[in-house]
Amino acid sequence: MAVHIRLARHGTKKSPAYRIVVTESRSPRDGRFVERLGTYNPIAAPKAFSLEWSRYDYWTSKGALPSATLARLLKKYPRAQTPAA
């Protein structure tokens, strides 16, 4: 089973909000997930990004890979800038 860390879209039409989830690679974008690690809201005035870094480190140590979009977000919001979730 290949496990990925990626975004799952939630929110209303034209007002997206995302959850950062750990999921099996074959499951659909908004389908089942193993664990929820954080959130991302691009619509908020200061864009809201929160992530449980301890759980992220745990899953990456087990071999989970972040999606390309999540990898870009992690570069934009490094660990030192992210408030504790």
Describe the structure.
The chain is an alpha+beta fold. It has a single domain, classed as 2-Layer Sandwich (S16 Ribosomal Protein, Chain: A). It has two helices and five strands. Strands 4-3-2-1-5 form a five-stranded mixed beta sheet. The longest helix has 9 residues, at about 55-60. The chain is globular and about 40 Å long. The N and C termini lie far apart (about 30 Å).
Key features?
85 residues; alpha+beta; S16 Ribosomal Protein, Chain: A; five-stranded mixed β-sheet; 2 helices; 21% helix; globular
Spell out the blueprint of helices and strands.
Elements: E1 3-12, E2 15-24, E3 35-41, E4 48-51, H1 53-61, E5 65-66, H2 68-76
Parallel strand pairs: 1-5
Antiparallel strand pairs: 1-2, 2-3, 3-4
Task: Please state the average pLDDT score.
Answer: 89
CATH superfamily: Ribosomal protein S16
Outline the low-pLDDT stretches: none
Span between termini? 28 Å
Strand content: 35-45%
Q: Which value, in Å, is the CA radius of gyration? A: 12 Å
**How many beta-strand runs?**
5
Main β-sheet, in a few words? Answer: 5 strands, mixed
Just give the CATH class. Alpha Beta
If strands are numbered along the chain, what order do they take across the biggest sheet? 4-3-2-1-5
Number of domains: 1
Task: Look up the CATH topology.
Answer: S16 Ribosomal Protein, Chain: A
Shape: globular
Looking at the overall shape, the CATH architecture is 2-Layer Sandwich
Return the string of H and E elements.
EEEEHEH
Number of alpha- plus pi-helical segments: 2
Q: Determine the fraction of residues in helical runs and give it as a percent range.
A: 10-25%
